[in-house]
Amino acid sequence: MTLVDATTPATLPETATTPLGGPTLPQERRLVTSIPGPASRALTLRKNQAVSAGVGVTLPVYAVAAGGAVIVDVDGNSLIDLGSGIAVTGVGNSAPAVVAAVSAQLAQFTHTCFSVVPYDSYIDVAEALNRLTPGDHEKRSALFNSGAEAVENAVKIARHFTGKQAVVAFDHAYHGRTNLTMGLTAKNQPYKNGFGPFAPEVYRVPTSYPYRDGGLSGAEAARRTISQIEKQIGADNLAAVIIEPIQGEGGFIVPAAGFLPALVDWCRAHNVVFIADEVQTGFARTGDLFACEHEGIVPDLICTAKGIAGGLPLSAVTGRADIMDAPQGGGLGGTYGGNPLACVAALATIATYESENLVGRARQIGAIITASLTAIDDPRIGEVRGRGAMMALELIDPATGEPDAALTGRVLASAHAQGVLLLGCGTYGNVIRLLPPLSITDALLREALQVLAEVLAAS
Ligand SMILES: *Cc1c(COP(=O)(O)O)cnc(C)c1O
């Protein structure tokens, strides 16, 4: 990295005065002010006067450009991005194919509303999703704007198809911030506190969390879950089971092998729709195109969003044709769902995942991260876990094994100060997650991992 005197307020370096995004940005960590710098601090003052306090910020530097795996801020600092805007920019920020596709579409038309006057790029995206998602059965897709909206619609569709109402969600689940998805989400702070009442007919059951459930096998954890469902809800009342194949906000929790397949089998035997929420795990992130593929499970419905469109807002529900075709015409949709700019961005993004073999790249990234993190000899690391380019560290007090959220906060703050954007997560606030763009170079990734090791040692 370049380290210009971090104590002197900024004079913007050449590259930051007219920064171009995309891969033209130098892929480097460069600190020219303290983090946040003076221009960002001034913007925070304005934010606090203009933006609702309910809209939180992880790292209060203000972006002016981003490309590949770096974000350049208003003070001219270049940060290594290990968050990808929460697993969104898998193909890199302002990926050239996405920029070209969206620019061309902008000049053609920006909006007609697919439910008013349709266009073919929406169909192209649906065909791509039907082709790429697990299972070779006949499928249909519907497009929306956000992950939460996809989840809401998956539940609507499952209820309509089964004629049943109850929905099962899991401990540590995260499904979004709308009313129904808040209800499905497990964690009170900050997602639910003060925002009730929540939607009825949502039931919470235990998940498989090998590090914290005494190492229950997948089969044992599934038996516990299914027994609770049968005793407390009953399959006759249950429309859907929704689960993240690797839980994201909950702490990158990878269930024990066999847990997910047992749930799928039970759902199939009881006319319960199995919904995989792959909003965070989807699109090459875990080293498979979809995380369900790891154990060969085939969900009835799959929700996708984040990594789907290179940063443009798009989400989808894809699944069995008989389920997806159950709702009446006009029952699904929305003004912006499947907006043409987002659709062409998705097509370019999906083509990039395939042509650049980003599934393979995610596995390489996972191997580099795993080697680096497991080489750290520190008893405060309770577990290194994850899959592909979705990896995490769970930090504990080694004396008690209890989660150490305070340490986690210190490590994140120090990494940010050193120009490495890392995110926290976890029900207990003690997990550091790594979600680099799949376009990150080995050199930049190794530099960021080195910083993480150093700030952990010093925290
Ligand atoms: C982010 C996320 C959501 C919500 O997506 P939004 O686009 O923020 O509404 C839902 N499910 C999972 C697993 C997520 O990670």
Automatic annotation (TrEMBL):
It catalyses: 4-aminobutanoate + 2-oxoglutarate = succinate semialdehyde + L-glutamate; (S)-3-amino-2-methylpropanoate + 2-oxoglutarate = 2-methyl-3-oxopropanoate + L-glutamate. The keyword Transferase applies. Residues 1-27 are annotated as: Disordered. Its cofactor is pyridoxal 5'-phosphate. It comes from the Bacteria. Keywords: Aminotransferase, Pyridoxal phosphate, Transferase. Pathway: Amino-acid degradation; 4-aminobutanoate degradation. Residues 1-26 have a biased composition (Low complexity). InterPro entries: 4NH2But_aminotransferase_bac (IPR004632), Aminotrans_3 (IPR005814), Aminotrans_3_PPA_site (IPR049704), Class-III_PLP-dep_AT (IPR050103), PyrdxlP-dep_Trfase (IPR015424), PyrdxlP-dep_Trfase_major (IPR015421), PyrdxlP-dep_Trfase_small (IPR015422). It holds the Pfam family Aminotran_3. One of its GO terms (biological process) is gamma-aminobutyric acid metabolic process. The keyword Transferase applies. Its EC number is 2.6.1.19, 2.6.1.22. One of its GO terms (molecular function) is (S)-3-amino-2-methylpropionate transaminase activity. Belongs to the class-III pyridoxal-phosphate-dependent aminotransferase family. This is (S)-3-amino-2-methylpropionate transaminase. It comes from Cryobacterium melibiosiphilum. The lineage of its organism: Bacteria, Bacillati, Actinomycetota, Actinomycetes, Micrococcales.
